[in-house]
Amino acid sequence: MNNYLKAIIATFALLFSLDATAQKKQVAKFQYVISQAVKKAYPASVRMWGFDVQQNQRTSAQFSGVVVSADGYILTAAHTISPGKNYKVFFPGGRECIAVALGKIENKETPGIPDVGLMKITDKGSYPFAEMGYSGSLLKNEPCISISYPESLNQTLPTLRLGNIAEVKNEYGFIRSTCKMEPGDSGGPLFDYHGRVVGLHSAIDVSEEMNFEIPVDLYRRYWTALNSETLYTVFPEKTDRVEIDPLSMQLQKESIKKALHPDFIVPMSKNSCFTIISTIKGQKQQINACLLNVKTTGGSEKQFLLSNNTMVGEEAQCDMNGTRMPIEFIGKDQENDLVLFALKKTYPVGLI
């Protein structure tokens, strides 16, 4: 086998092996972190609808929410509730109970904003709950998880969606995520990759990438005011202190390292995959080939095409975006079904 072919195959195999091993480890870590976050968040993600406790009947459309304390406080969107009204709450584990809507904030000047609503379970007991996070420490592109109940599916278990933070704070004061929403998802929780509530589903735009989330720090800031069964048409005067996220530094370090940003599909460089056209037993044959840039021992650069030996016949040429380019046969490795050609004219890109 030609020395060029040996060197290229060895280099290509090593690079692929190292990249694949590193990628597998990164994906495995990502899967573990996300699965642990879902394990924490899932049991507290609830679906709800208005409920007349006297008539024992449903009175409104379905919506979503999340329980954030053992005694049953629920975060949801303001546009789904009316202060003082009763709602039936369904946990994914099958448990059911009744909650009352407490306060909500909907400014007159900006309808639908900030869309903050609080509820409280009235049945005595201890309930599954999720930890409240801090929207102020969110970073662009960090992974996030949606767990909510699309009404169109009419299912007792929530739908999980994985996405990322597209905007930490948009022009309306919302977080924007890539976790898609539909009717019934309103009020549903958005979690960070530590399984903490960082936002609540509020609204969508025409684009599927425009999903607006209510920052959880608003619930922290107006917690005391929201405990009153009141509709606030302006932000309440009384505010609570919002502490600094204890994981803030950790989140920044993880973001810089991109430890949780695996490329599940690693795209090849643009124009690095081309077609070799040849003839096998009188029939035209086409097969893809990888364009490789390789430095020779003398320091000069050469370009090669690596493809499957058994799929390339006689009169081989390379089709590069509609342009036929002459190629020179270098050698073949029958054991690994590889064939190597050299380009007679230089092309501007390649893999290595």
Short account of what is shown:
The protein is an alpha+beta fold and 352 residues long. It contains four helices and 20 strands.
Q: Which CATH top level class of the largest domain fits?
A: Mainly Beta
Mean pLDDT: 86
Helix content: 10-25%
Task: Point out poorly predicted stretches.
Answer: 266-271
At CATH level 3, the topology of the largest domain is Thrombin, subunit H
The CATH architecture of the largest domain: Beta Barrel
- Radius of gyration (Å): 29 Å
DSSP summary, beta strand count: 20
Order of helices and strands: HEEEEEEEEEEEEEHHEHEEEEEE
End-to-end gap: 21 Å
Number of helices: 4
**Strand percentage, roughly?**
35-45%
Structural class of the helices, strands and pairings?
alpha+beta
Shape: elongated
**Largest sheet at a glance?**
6 strands, antiparallel, barrel
Give the strand order, joined by hyphens, for the main sheet: 1-3-4-7-6-5
- Total domains: 2
Task: Give the helix/strand layout.
Layout: H1 3-41, E1 45-52, E2 57-58, E3 63-67, E4 73-77, E5 86-90, E6 96-106, E7 114-121, E8 143-148, E9 159-167, E10 175-177, E11 189-192, E12 197-204, E13 211-215, H2 216-221, H3 223-226, E14 231-232, H4 248-257, E15 273-280, E16 283-295, E17 301-308, E18 314-320, E19 323-333, E20 338-343
Parallel strand pairs: 6-14
Antiparallel strand pairs: 1-2, 1-3, 1-5, 3-4, 4-7, 5-6, 6-7, 8-9, 8-11, 9-10, 10-13, 11-12, 12-13, 15-16, 15-18, 16-17, 17-20, 18-19, 19-20
